[in-house]
Amino acid sequence: MEKYFINGKEPVVEGKSKKIYELDKDTFFMCFKPHLRSITSKREENIEGTDKERLISNMYFMNLLESKGIKTQINSNKIQNIDGVDGIIVKKVKTIPIEFICRYYASGSIVRLYPSLVKEGQKFKTPLYKFDLKQDIKVSGVDDPTLNENYIVGLELLTENQFKEAKQILSKVGEIIREDLENINVRLIDMKMEMGFDEEGNIVVIDEISQDCIRANDIETGKSLTKDSFRQLKSDEEVLNCYKEFNMKLSERR
């Protein structure tokens, strides 16, 4: 991303894959960077164009959730352009420092960690839920360590009732996206999402739902259409084409 200033301001938050600019005290402008990282594959690089494709899919999914009665962080239902940069206008939230994960099929870390219990591609009778602390590997040598309910409540990340509500949202969001993708012949393997509190104290879906946080394959061919293509060490061009193909399929639902 070439622009560093939006409305003459530097970003208030800048991570590996996003920049967030303050527009006023209640709204922010979130834009994506073309950065991808896989610790297990020991691969980290920028792939130009993936930021645009993630932006498109994120807008699609946030609008889908809003249409189903799930509150999200978005403040506009369309991609906006400010000072030549495309992004999403979002509401002010207080982030919950947890990655909420739902799994429908076995793949990735669950296969590596529990090979005696699961096999690659195994379908779970009911979705499995996992909760990881948002913590960079540099802090303790472990990337996003896993939390259980007792830790989440006991360490006061959420109250018991808030955790129950967040888990219900995770379940609903997963089912909405899983069913939507099945209608375009795409299988949702697993996904992660983030949540936060809005100004009224409601738990809302925030950040990003895109190819970077969804593991999804073409049902007929088994081809990865999301970040697994990057983990599989495919070329930059192949990864970008997978992201584009995913969005082309989503366009069939618009």
Topology (SSEs and partners):
Blueprint: E1 13-14, E2 18-22, E3 27-32, E4 35-38, E5 43-46, H1 50-67, E6 80-82, E7 85-91, E8 94-95, E9 98-105, H2 109-113, E10 123-133, H3 137-140, E11 146-147, H4 149-154, H5 160-182, E12 186-197, E13 203-206, E14 214-218, H6 228-231, H7 236-251
Antiparallel strand pairs: 1-2, 2-3, 3-7, 4-5, 6-7, 8-12, 9-10, 9-12, 10-11, 12-13, 12-14
Helix pairs in contact: 1-7
Textual characterization of the structure:
The chain has helices at residues 50-67, 109-113, 137-140, 149-154, 160-182, 228-231, 236-251, and strands at residues 13-14, 18-22, 27-32, 35-38, 43-46, 80-82, 85-91, 94-95, 98-105, 123-133, 146-147, 186-197, 203-206, 214-218. It is α+β, with helices and mostly antiparallel strands and 254 residues long. A hairpin with a 5-residue loop joins strand 12 and strand 13 (203-206). The longest helix is centred in the last third of the chain and has 23 residues, at 160-182.
What is shown here, in short?
With 254 residues, this protein is α+β, with helices and mostly antiparallel strands. It has helices spanning 50-67, 109-113, 137-140, 149-154, 160-182, 228-231, 236-251; strands at 13-14, 18-22, 27-32, 35-38, 43-46, 80-82, 85-91, 94-95, 98-105, 123-133, 146-147, 186-197, 203-206, 214-218.
Keywords:
254 residues, alpha+beta, 7-stranded antiparallel sheet, 7 helices, 14 strands, 30% strand
Tell me, briefly, the overall form: globular
Which structural class do you get from the secondary structure elements?
alpha+beta
Q: Write the element-wise H/E pattern from the N-terminal end onward.
A: EEEEEHEEEEHEHEHHEEEHH
Beta strands, count: 14
Query: What does the radius of gyration come to?
Result: 18 Å
What about the largest sheet? 7 strands, antiparallel
Strand residues, percent: 25-35%
Spans where pLDDT lies below 50 across 5 or more residues: none
Mean pLDDT: 94
